Amino acid sequence: QVQLVESGGGLVQAGGSLRLSCAASLRTFSIYTMGWFRQAPGKERERVARIKWNNSTDYADSVKGRFTISRDNAKNTVYLQMTSLKPEDTATYYCNKDPAVPAYWGQGTQVTVSS
Predict the structure, then answer these.
(1) CB under 8 Å to 2, separation ≥6 — which residues?
(2) 109: exposed, middle or buried (C-beta count within 10 Å: 0-12, 13-18, 19+)?
(3) Coil, strand, or helix at residue 75?
(4) 4: exposed, middle or buried (C-beta count within 10 Å: 0-12, 13-18, 19+)?
(5) How does pLDDT run across 12-59, given as a tens digit for each residue?
(6) Which one of 1, 34, 66, 114 is at 20 to 30 Å from 14 when CA atoms are compared?
(7) Which residues pair with 68 in a beta bridge?
């Protein structure tokens, strides 16, 4: 059974930073494209970043230059370093394969940015 466990969220002031982690119980983790997604209240879930097997990355325009996705294949873990946080970054953050597999969604980790 695949489990994706997100951690590292919290309450931070605007301009602050957080580092999210996602531990994945995926066999052959290293070959998959992994993504970070977020969902704010009343909004659709959106992808904010993804990282391919070769460490190439893509970012949503809204986070480009502020967020950095990385992975540690030895630990089956993907990270999201978030800097210069804004109130509009407030959401529940999830990781998943990309494209996302519906059955893999975890509980997510809440990020709240105060102004």
Answers:
(1) 24, 25, 26, 101, 103, 104
(2) buried
(3) helix
(4) buried
(5) 999 999 999 999 998 899 999 999 999 999 999 999 999 999 999 999
(6) 34
(7) 81
pLDDT attached to residue 71 = 98
Which candidate, 115, 113, 95, places its Cα nearest to that of 10? 113
Q: Residue 54 contacts by C-beta under 8 Å, 6 or more apart in sequence?
A: none
Q: Do 36 and 45 form a contact (C-beta atoms < 8 A)?
A: no
Q: How many CA atoms lie within 13 A of 115 on its CB side?
A: 2
Helix (H) or strand (E) holding 10: strand 10-13
By the 8 A CB rule, do 56 and 33 touch? no
Per-residue model confidence (pLDDT) at position 1: 85
Higher pLDDT, 2 or 94: 94
